[in-house]
């Protein structure tokens, strides 16, 4: 039925527009902790380099690298946690919209079918 095809095309276009930002949120949520981990490794490496250059484990030598590591971890988590929360929120809302849209589509097709049966 042509009406079914037209409604399905509109539904598909709307679903695609609604889920447009989901890829960014998913990438940020999954990649953020790894970027933070990379920063952590980099900060710890700087601490070890400082220890090797000064031949001492003084807190003044180790602290800057540890601070970099903690900051990188925090930034990675600060980006990832909200991204995952919003991804899940929007994914649930988009799914609910799809369910309502499918229900509307079925009711519309039933109504059209009844009208065609009455007229024919």
Task: Describe the fold and architecture.
The protein has 120 residues and is mainly alpha-helical. The chain has one domain (20-119). 92% of the residues lie in helices and 0% in strands. It contains three helices and no strands. The chain has helices at residues 2-18, 22-54, 59-119. Helix 1 runs antiparallel to helix 3 (59-119). The longest helix is centred in the C-terminal third of the chain and has 61 residues, at 59-119. The radius of gyration is 27 Å and the shape is rod-shaped. It starts with a helix and ends with a helix. The model has no long low-confidence stretch (mean pLDDT 87).
How would a crystallographer describe the biggest sheet? none
Mean pLDDT: 87
Number of strands: 0
Alpha-carbon Rg, integer: 27 Å
Shape: rod-shaped
Summary?
The chain contains 3 helices and no strands.
List keywords for this structure.
120 residues; mainly alpha; 92% helix; rod-shaped
Please write out the topology:
Elements: H1 2-18, H2 22-54, H3 59-119
Helix pairs in contact: 1-3, 2-3
């Amino acid at each position: 039925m042509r009406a079914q095809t037209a409604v399905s095309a509109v539904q598909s276009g709307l679903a695609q527009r609604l889920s447009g930002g989901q890829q960014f949120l998913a990438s940020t949520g999954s990649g953020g902790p790894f970027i933070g981990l990379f920063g952590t490794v980099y900060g710890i490496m700087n601490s070890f380099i400082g220890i090797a250059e000064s031949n001492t484990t003084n807190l003044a030598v180790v602290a800057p690298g540890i601070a970099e590591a903690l900051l990188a971890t925090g930034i990675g988590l600060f980006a990832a946690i909200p991204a995952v929360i919003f991804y899940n929120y929007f994914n649930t809302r988009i799914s609910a919209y799809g369910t309502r849209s499918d229900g509307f589509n079925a009711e519309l097709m039933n109504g059209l079918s009844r009208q065609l049966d009455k007229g024919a």
